[in-house]
Specification:
The protein is α+β, with helices and mostly antiparallel strands and 237 residues long. The protein is built from seven helices and seven strands; from the N terminus they run αβββαααααββββα. The protein binds zinc ion. The site of zinc ion has 7 residues, from helix 3.
């Protein structure tokens, strides 16, 4: 989207105020929880498809909070209400909590970036436990017990955050080589094999595996999943 230069300039001038508002809120939450979220860098951008994001500092990624001025800005056509803005900041802080706090085992049943661990974090700070943005959400009283037991299925509304980053992360994860040449692997159909060659592709890794006389090309992701399933199945015996 082309943003009017004038609007861009006005929004850039607002960042100091937003920064102060977010830091003030995060300092308060830090004191409650004994965390250091207010020290994480906060950046702003002009994303049109998501409101915010939290990037944990893994690998080459720098840890940061990121917010789109096109949503949080005061001078846009449809600004968020203060409650919704604060709720968005809490939403991202809950992601930060997910990576920086011990989550009790019973809240780890549902995987995913907006899974039960994240919803548990939302319940501690009063954030709306929904990954999608609906106006007025920040004001509703949420039944955390209920959402902690049930999956959110409403996908009709724009996602608040991290969608593109989550995809990037998945892509990166799938293209990270997890094996070495000469490693022995187990294939559900072909049995024991040895890795002879590893090809790193964009978004995936292709293993060339020797099973006796046959050389098979196997997607690493597939092999990891097959082995996981096998390990999981044997545990129940
Ligand atoms: Zn989120």
């Amino acid at each position: 989207m082309n943003i009017d230069n004038n609007l861009r300039h006005l929004l850039e001038n607002e960042t100091k105020i937003h920064l102060a508002e977010i830091r003030f809120l995060y300092q308060k939450l830090d004191r409650q929880l004994g965390l250091n979220g207010a020290r994480v860098p906060i950046t702003f951008g002009f994303d049109t498809d998501r409101l915010g994001a939290y990037t944990p500092g893994f690998g080459q990624d720098e840890e940061e909070f990121h917010f789109s001025l096109l949503f949080i800005g005061y001078c846009v056509a449809k600004p968020l209400s203060k409650d919704d803005r604060i709720d968005l900041y809490k939403h991202e802080y809950a992601h930060y909590m997910q990576y920086n706090m011990d989550i009790p085992d019973k809240y780890n049943w549902q995987p995913g970036i907006h899974g039960s661990a994240w919803k548990y974090c939302c319940s501690l700070i009063g954030a709306a436990p929904t990954p999608y943005y609906k106006a007025g959400e920040g004001l509703i009283k949420h039944d955390y017990d209920k959402v902690l037991k049930k999956k959110i299925t409403d996908k009709s509304i724009p996602i608040r955050d991290t969608y593109s980053r989550e995809q990037e992360y998945r892509k990166k994860k799938n293209s990270t080589v997890k094996f070495n040449i000469n490693d022995d692997v187990n294939h559900p159909k072909f049995g024991k094999g040895t890795i002879e060659h590893i090809e790193q592709l964009e978004g995936s890794v292709r293993l060339h595996v020797r099973f006796g006389e046959d050389l098979k090309k196997i997607d690493q992701k597939w092999l990891l999943q097959a082995n996981l399933k096998k390990a999981g199945a044997s545990r129940h015996i």
